[in-house]
Amino acid sequence: MKPRGWLRFALAAGLIALTAILLQARGRTEITPPRLPLSSFPSQLDQWDSTQITLDPKTLEVLGQGDFMERVYRDPEAKLPYIDLFLAYFPSQRTGDTIHSPQHCLPGAGWNPDESVRVTLSLPGHEPFPANRYVISKADQRRLVLYWFWAHDRGVASEYWNKFYLVKDAIRLNRSDGSLIRFVTPILPGETPDAAQQRILPFTHAVAPLLDSYIPR
Predict the structure, then answer these.
(1) Residue 68 has what pLDDT?
(2) Cα 153 from Cα 209, distance rounded (Å)
(3) What is d(CA 120, CA 37) in angstroms, rounded to the nearest whole number?
(4) Which residue in 51, 133, 200, 205 has a CA-CA distance of 20 to 30 Å to 1?
């Protein structure tokens, strides 16, 4: 591993360890607001119909104690590529089950990272926030991955800032709940990542108004 890689790894490991220590130090019972289970998330959004993806036991073991949903949505009339929506909600992150970044998981599934940039999203009913746009490839296939960490009506792109807010919210609100929101879609031949992002934005806008019911503010 390169020196810079070791430094980033050490910083991440230290931050995770510090997060666990600080969260465990909060002795009083934390607040867990009521919400709807992700299993009740609409299977149809506007013109998009979906197919449920069943997560295998090994994946669930890696994810930890939380509520998870993955569905593949398609617009049968527009004949556009599918959009894979994955939602992960952790009601508590004090026991060490914290959110995993897709950047750590996707390369392990055989996908090569081609591009990683930050973009700003403006979704209905929410303030603009930074998100991660990740382009991955395998053989002749390319995928656009758009994801961010979401907690208490706050969107964060950085894994490190997400850990910082986790500790801050645990102290200020006595809450350690949080979530990951991820969209994946194929990039068409000749299509740019910018064009693919614009293509799926109407779907992200359809998802946004529903988030508060499943991921408490």
Answers:
(1) 95
(2) 11
(3) 28
(4) 133
Q: Are 31 and 44 in contact (CB under 8 A)?
A: no
Q: Locate 32 and state its tokens.
A: 């867990």
Write out pLDDT tens, residues 178-217.
999 999 999 999 999 999 999 999 999 999 999 999 999 9
* Tokens 């792109």, residue located: 157
Q: Give which of 69, 83, 70, 78 is closest to 47, Cα–Cα.
A: 78
Q: Which two three-digit tokens encode residue 121?
A: 């999203």
Phi and psi at 59, nearest 5°, equal: -65, -45
In contact, 156 and 183? CB cutoff 8 Å: no
Q: Which residues pair with 183 in a beta bridge?
A: 85, 146
Rounded distance between C-alpha atoms, residue 154 and residue 131, angstroms? 11
> Which of 178, 166, 163 lies closest to 11, judged by CA?
163
Domain map of the chain by residue range?
A: 3-214
Q: By the 8 A CB rule, do 156 and 181 touch? A: no
CA distance 23 to 103: 25
* Cα torsion angle, 34, 40, 43, 44, sign: negative
Strand partners, 34: none
Between 59 and 13, residue with greater pLDDT: 59
- For residue 133, the cross-strand partners are 117, 146
